Amino acid sequence: MTKTILTVDDSRTMRDMLHLALTEAGFRVVQAVDGLDGLEALDAAQADVIITDINMPRLDGFGFIEGVRKNDRHRATPILVLTTESDTSKKQRARDAGATGWIVKPFNPEKLIDAIRRVAA
Amino acid sequence: MDPLAAIKVTFFQECEEQLAELEGGLLAMEGGDHDPEIVNAVFRAVHSIKGGAGAFSLEDLVRFSHVFETALDLIRSGDIQADQETLKLLLRSADVLADHVRAARDGGSVDEGRSSAMAEALEALASGMGGGGEADTGDGFADFVFNPVTIDMSDAAAPAPDLSIEDLLARVTGEAASTSDVPAETAGDDVTWHIRFYPQVGLYQKANESGLLLRELARLGKVEVRLDASGLPTLQNMNPEDAYLGWSVALSGPTLEEASIREVFEWVEGDCYLDIVREGAAPAAAVAAGTAPAASIDAVGEVDVMALIRAAQAAEVPAAAMTPPTAAPRPAEAPAKVEPTKTREAALDAKAQAAAREASPQTIRVDLERVDRLIDLVGELVINQAMLTQRVAECGLQRASSVAMGLDDLEQLTREIQDSVMAIRAQPVKSVFQRFPRLVREIAAMTGKEVRLIMDGEGTEVDKTVIERLSDPLTHMIRNAIDHGLETPDEREAAGKPREGVVRLAALHRSGRIVIEISDDGRGINRPRVKQIAVDKGLISPETNLSDDEIDNLIFMAGFSTAATVSDISGRGVGMDVVRRSIQSLGGRINISSRPGQGSTFTLSLPLTLAVLDGMVVTVAGQTLVAPLTAIIESLQPKAADVRSLGPNAQVIAIRDTHVPLIDIGRSLGYRTVTPPPTEGVALLVEGEGGSRAALMVDAIQGQRQVVIKSLEANYRPVPGIAAATILGDGRVALILDIDAVMVPKPHEGLGAASAPAAGGFDPAVVPTSLAKVG
User: Fold this and answer.
1) Does the pLDDT value for residue B149 go beyond 80?
2) DSSP 8-state symbol, B676
């Protein structure tokens, strides 16, 4: 069955790149532009995996992850965080918020698909 | 375009937006705005640029944005104070970042010296607070408490039941034990690792799955997995969301490194007990590989293993039995149920706050071509609707007839559609204004002047084409304002003014036009000098008597340039005459007012759109012409007593207490050689740019109409005295007058003589087919 990925990123470039890589790999993609938008998209998206950026306006990635984990219907959805290699503290904060794993930017399609495989049954 | 190239285009578009956001934010901070969201937005802008640049391997851009981002992050965290000095550095860095973006986009190069100097300054800023540029990185794991679960494995009386899932399954279902409990074969130079893995509840709370981790391990080599269910409490005592199971894995494969095993567990570090031992390396820690004693099986059998296993089978993942998707884990130590309504309220609250902070309307991006196509079509619709109205009128239908009333509605709708479509093309002038803070900084640095730029009305909207074509003239005028208008700080001080000069750029809507003012508080126009130059250059005769306003307006004359030597800044081979021409080509006017010692103000007035025009349709010598309504002050019937002749070809008319030139349009355009008596026609009192007035003689007024502008230059060729063309309701082409051009007294008589050699002047009947096709 086609898996659905919810991508949450305020950068159009990143959203487009994720969309391209994910659709080419056969995933269905739902996009959100920031944390709040992402929380609103949860029910409609019914995502199997969520990929989120950290630095976003209105509601950042940490807040978004906490929001998902507080949501009874979606708290068991794996969440992958887009982060940069050096940023250990952000990884840790994301984990504390409830992130499942992370994808280090700049990512390539392989890295992306690999990360999804690691969290999706 | 391949998809990646398209994304790259998006990236550079987005960069421009981010750069604008960055500069805007930094300027707000410089202005004393301490809203943390501004700092966040500034950080995000650079962060986003870096992220995209990384994706496209734009290394120079990544490198510079990284240094920049690091400094901004420290400001965001409050480790660095954003004082004025720092903000100046950041603003200059933003300029360099913009250079990097453009270099990456256009394949150019940046000023390496400037870039590296700025990078060093940023690094110095970041390291100035002690921790160094990477202060916030690397310390992440310091406060990351590794909290191993204490499982008593040494208790010989109750050995851990080590059995494979298959084994367990087989026993429960009564089948023969699978072959998987045969120890993993170690062929050749295979390495075997023994991994003990005991998830804690946090692992499941973060939506990690033990089964998937085991599956990842299986990708590394041959695995033998044994389940340790000894931690399972009785059913009554079991919290379905807690973690009770553990696994022992024997993993073997060629050249298997510990690092690759650790990598599998990278995301669950701290959320499980993990023990990785190479076979034969540390016997004490190695997991006993012996088969589980029967007693353990019985112990496991105390709980309803059947149900667990079935659940596990159904989910294909053992861990899922503990954390079925419908009842995901919840911290055992914090069993308070989260109220969904509260969460929602919190989200709504946050949303309301965010909305208050930043009311960002929803937008879509549309290819400009599509919008222009739509505008073209609406233009055709307007013409068609006008034609239809005229045809219906010719049929002699009653005003109250349903057809006529329907047409009225259609007209109303057409106009609304037209307005709405025009609004699509409208953009805030911000997109051109936002370039100027940098420009001002650079010119200030080059001239050694202190300048503050104040911008007003950036949200004022005007057609995109107008905006695009405003950039050059405005740039030139701002250069002028600083270079020529403002004094040096010392001069200002001597004149009792603040050292810092002010340049103000303001936009506003006024009676259907956009007005842009560029003012400075500098020295003002040096009138004696301006007049002298005009005389020296032969632009005026020494005897000419000019008002202050007229002298000020001399600077717009072609060939006039006050700078003794062409300076780097203002003098780029363009003078104010070029500025005026480009404003005029937009259907605009430019005016200057100046007060010696107090500064000058340039006022531009432009149409909001270049696509339609409110016009007065007039008849001249049997031709239908359109005069732009904005230029017309009034129309009047000349009385013979008011008209005076000043020569064979020059007449003036007295309008109230002044005299203005009376110009026969028919003769100006070469339609006729003999001017009919003014009393038989109508005079349009018009005002040109610069405020000069004239009365244009036409034969009759047909009425006011909104007309769709069709460029003559694009479809035919420029015609002096004519600004553009349009198509009227009857399908005929009418020419739109260039008021300023027909007002200017020319040494030769009749513009038509120069422009259209054919006798009788320019004949609308011979317009090119591309113009006439609509009719």
Assistant:
1) no
2) P
Domain of B99 in residue numbering reads as 3-127
Task: Mark whether B383 and B253 lie in a shared domain.
Answer: no
Rounded to a whole number of angstroms, the distance from the CA of B566 to the nearest CA of chain A is 44
Q: Do B10 and A77 touch (CB under 8 A)?
A: no
Tokens, residue B125 = 């800023």
Same domain, B448 and B411: no
Band the pLDDT of A77: cuts 50, 70, 90. very high
The reply to whether B571 and B669 lie within a common domain is no
Q: What is the CATH number of the domain that holds B545?
A: 3.30.565.10
Residue B439 CA to residue B478 CA, distance in Å, equals 8
Domain boundaries, chain A: 4-119
d(CA B88, CA B318): 59
Q: Contact A55/B43, CB-based, under 8 Å? A: yes
Which burial class, exposed, middle or buried, applies to B500 when counting CB atoms under 10 A from its CB (0-12, 13-18, 19+)? middle
Which residues on B lie below 8 Å from A58 (Cβ)?
350-351, 354, 358
The complex's ipTM? 0.89
Q: In chain B, helix, strand, coil percent, each to 5?
A: 45, 20, 35
Summarised one tens digit per residue, pLDDT across range B402-438 is: 888 888 888 888 888 888 888 888 888 988 898 898 8
Mutation target to probe the A interface, by most A beta carbons within 10 A, among B74, B267, B342, B360 is B267
Nearest to B594 by CA among B667, B671, B528, B676: B528
Q: Side chain identity at B400, as an amino acid letter?
A: A
Amino acid at B112: E
* Nearest C-alpha in A relative to B139: A89
Local confidence band at B110 (pLDDT 50, 70, 90 cut-offs): confident
Where a domain ends, among B127, B155, B171? B127
**Options 2.130.10.10, 3.40.190.10, 3.90.1150.10, 3.40.50.2300; which CATH number does A4-119 get?**
3.40.50.2300
Q: Do residue A88 and residue B137 have CB atoms under 8 angstroms apart?
A: yes
pLDDT at B504 exceeding the cut of 90? yes
DSSP-assigned states of every residue in B62-92: HHHHHHHHHHHHHHHTTSS---HHHHHHHHH
